[in-house]
């Protein structure tokens, strides 16, 4: 329980055996009494076994569906087990679970709360095409939602029962669908969105896959995803 609400932390994971145990233990230590569900998205390493040994409930997909497919399963689990709140946390340790109560506090007034990296807390920064893409996405989605959103691609989010029910039935599996398209869909249907400043940490294991070439690809894909999300009904 957090702030009187029954809460499920959903962690989508693909080949995160190097970090998932520490992430699960930290969540359970900082948020005692909260349930943790690791959705193993078709890993080829020991992610499932390591997560279970650390105390998480584990749902294992037979093959890789992408973050959107894993999150849809997580929200369906939250809906079928009647949780009040679902919180998304990445498996690489960059999201600090000590911020979770701040996100949950706002769910009394909002449906979806985003942990925002560029809202004045911490030193996380991006440059070049990735920054341009994130700035463009934030400008468009802020206008659509009627509030200032500085980090629309953050995977650190909390949703109330209304969000759990919607995401259990509808959650896009395409590239950036778990971030950009979900926000477009949520805002268009009149759900209330807000953000909370959070500091982002370094990965506990592995290396980021960013490079100038990949950043340009990211910019192009982000533009395409946003256009398709705005066209779809």
From TrEMBL:
Domain Glycosyltransferase 2-like: 9-164
Source taxon at top rank: Bacteria
Name used for this protein in its record: Glycosyltransferase family 2 protein
Family listed: Belongs to the glycosyltransferase 2 family.
Organism: Micromonospora craniellae
Molecular functions (GO terms): transferase activity
Keywords: Transferase
Stored InterPro entries: Glyco_trans_2-like, Glycosyltransferase_2, Nucleotide-diphossugar_trans
